[in-house]
Amino acid sequence: MKIELLASHDPAWRTTVDELYPLLGGGQNPTLLPYHFLQVVLPHIGGALLRVWQGDQFMGVGFALPAVAPASAPVRAYVVRYHTVISAPASQWELIQQECTKALSTPHVALYDPTLAHPYTATRRTVGTLEIGRPDGDEAMMIRRLQQQIWGSPPEFLYPTDLHSTDFPLGTSLVARVDGQLAGFLFGFYKWADEHEDGLAASPRQMLRIESQVMGVLPAYRGLRIGFLLKKLQAEAALAQCIGVINWTFDPLQYPNAALNFGLLRAVALHFIPDYYPFRNELNRGPASRFSLTWPIGAPRVRAVPLYDAQSTVINLAQQPAIVRVNQGWAQVDLAATAPRIAVEIPARWTELQQNAPEEARQWRTATDQIFAHYVGAAPGKYAVTDVGVEGERRFLVATRMSDQFWQALYD
Asked: How far apart are CA 99 and CA 114, in angstroms?
């Protein structure tokens, strides 16, 4: 038996996924991770791809996702979701696991069959008028349907139900219930961070993060701060596992999400990724550019936000003339600012703008992509996006220039 390992940084990653995805059933296989996840997110979180051969026969594909190693083991661990192309007898599964373990160079590898029946155990915690916890089996199936209801997602965008089973080591799996009805959900994967990704040099075990992947709330239940409460409980669970940082990506032009992420949760954006996802949909009619957020959940700036009655921090820019505006809409862009703090104007209603004025939306995306690519970064002299601001009906993201004092304030 032979294993071909494709690491996340391999330049052949995307073409290989393109070849394998239809072979494994594509959007018609409910146990297969979504195409965009395999293309973009799996390498981003430090995953790997393994092709299994028996002689000249192609037997199957394993997608290796980061997992938690035993506390005494300062090494990486993985769970390998294995999809068969040619069915192998049960006696070969142990051999496949052994070969995957060798290929991934760690003793902590679990081989996982997503086609089997897996158990689900619901948990319940009352948080105000909500009940939040892990989903049971029926709720796990509902999460898949909610993705379709909220975003109109086609089959190739839907995540497998079994991710929420107690057998699969998902970093976060939470649902919110209102009067016993599923109102929202949040799930995320474990992630291996780059050594200096968020300004921290760390040991292999300390580099374990959570990549918070998808959060959705049904329209009928919006306004109850369900997203905020799901994130706060996600942070509590991560801290209990000695995980100090949660990352996720979001569209920087979606002001309501920015208000939650920066103004309420107190996350920061240290990285900008233009055209991150290779898809187009109702929310992304042009390039799907993203911020990668860093949420230092053990830091005072984050922990000071209470679970109940938290107030969002929104800067009134009319009272802050020292914060330099670097654009006026999409038409005027200044790439020469060096002020301690800058403000980037974004559309007030990005989703509607894409639907009703696609050419103007294209101009906004082009201009702000240029601004974020120039200013945002973790290197000295670059800026971290830390806040949201308003001036009348206009909406802004506010960024702070990187310095030793900034890093100290972020984590201490």
From this structure: 19
Show the CA angle centred on residue 77, arms to residues 74 and 80, nearest 5°.
Answer: 175
Of the candidates 79, 85, 15, the residue with the CA atom closest to the CA atom of residue 48: 79
How many Cβ atoms are within 10 Å of 15's Cβ, its own excluded? 10
DSSP state of 163: G
Q: Write out pLDDT tens, residues 274-314.
A: 988 765 555 555 688 999 999 999 999 899 999 999 999 99
* Calpha distance 320→316 (Å, rounded): 7
With contact defined as beta carbons under 8 Å apart, do 50 and 100 qualify?
A: yes
Rounded to a whole number of angstroms, the CA Rg of the chain reads 22
Structure-block tokens of residue 168? 């699969």
Burial of 52-87, coded b for 16+ CB within 10 Å and e otherwise, reads beeeeeebbbbbbbbbbbeeeeeebbbbbbbbeeee
Other C-beta atoms lying within 10 Å of the C-beta of residue 241? 13
CB atoms within 10 A of CB 194: 9
Amino acid type, 313: T
- List 65's β-bridge partners, or say none: 79
Q: Residues 25-42: pLDDT tens digits?
A: 999 999 999 999 999 999
Check the CA dihedral 196-200-203-207 and report its sign.
negative
Measure the CA–CA gap between 210 and 45, rounded to whole angstroms: 9
Tell me whether strands 327-328 and 332-333 are parallel, antiparallel or unpaired: antiparallel
Residues 6+ apart with CB under 8 A from 218: 146, 149, 150, 182, 183, 184
Distance in angstroms (rounded) separating the CA atoms of residues 232 and 253: 23
369: which strand partners? none
Residues 254-289: b if buried by 16+ CB within 10 A, e if exposed:
bbebbbbbbbbbbbbbbbbbeebbeeeeeebbeebb
Rounded distance between C-alpha atoms, residue 207 and residue 35, angstroms: 26
Quote the CA–CA distance of 65 and 43 in Å, as a whole number. 9
**Residue 66: closest CA among 44, 90, 88, 33:** 44
- Tell me: the pLDDT tens digits for 360-377? 999 999 999 999 999 999
Spatial contact of 3 and 105, defined as CB atoms under 8 Å apart: no
3-state secondary structure of 262: helix
* Coil, strand or helix at 289: strand
How many other CB atoms sit within 10 Å of the CB of residue 33? 23
